[in-house]
Amino acid sequence: MSVAFRRESDEEHLEPKFELPIPPGPNLVTVRGAALIEAKLAELAAALQGLREPDEIKAVRRDLRYWSTRAATAQLMPVPDGKVVEFGCTVHLSLHGKARKISIVGDDEAEPVAGRLSFAAPLARAIMGAEIGEMLAFGGKAEAIEILGIEITAADTKVH
Questions:
Q1: Domain membership flag for residue 4
Q2: What total number of domains does the chain contain?
Q3: What does the alpha-carbon distance between residue 62 and residue 84 come to, in Å, rounded to a whole number?
Q4: Is 41 exposed, middle or buried (0-12, 13-18, 19+ CB in 10 A)?
């Protein structure tokens, strides 16, 4: 019989379920980032208790594996002193003449729309180690970035 006429199971048409990808490199976290990871683990553990559907259980267990790995590999970074741009700083800068405020955080805490960039993001890498008043090249343009201010927020210094 031709393969074209053979009935395939519904399982053959489903997308395969893969593990959530772990970002490459070290798992650097701020105090806030570490707290977010712990909160996510607690949320998923609580959600797992009420599930009965095998597919939902598999999905939550997959997420738990990801967040458990992130918790186990988290490297809490020291609070920066604010003299130069470092991991954990909030930076006021001018990028191509437009004022911006960004915080340099870990991969899982990153939320570019809210101004939280991963330390691995090109803009974050470009400004690391810079001091207030320094002009930096970015995107092939000289003096595209000017560092206007560096701050450390109180939330970044409190251990929960």
A1: no
A2: 2
A3: 39
A4: middle
- Mind listing the pLDDT tens digit for each residue in 24-47? 989 999 999 999 999 999 999 999
Q: Give the count of beta carbons closer than 10 Å to the beta carbon of residue 56.
A: 13
Q: What is the DSSP letter of 160?
A: -
Instruction: Let me know whether 68 and 104 are in one domain.
Output: no
- The amino acid that residue 110 corresponds to is A
C-alpha R_g of the chain: 22
| Domain around 148 | 90-154
Structure tokens at 90: 């909030």
DSSP letters of 24-36?
SS-EEE-HHHHHH
Do 94 and 137 fall into the same domain? yes
The model's pLDDT over 112-129, given as tens digits with 9 standing for 90+, comes to: 999 999 999 999 999 999
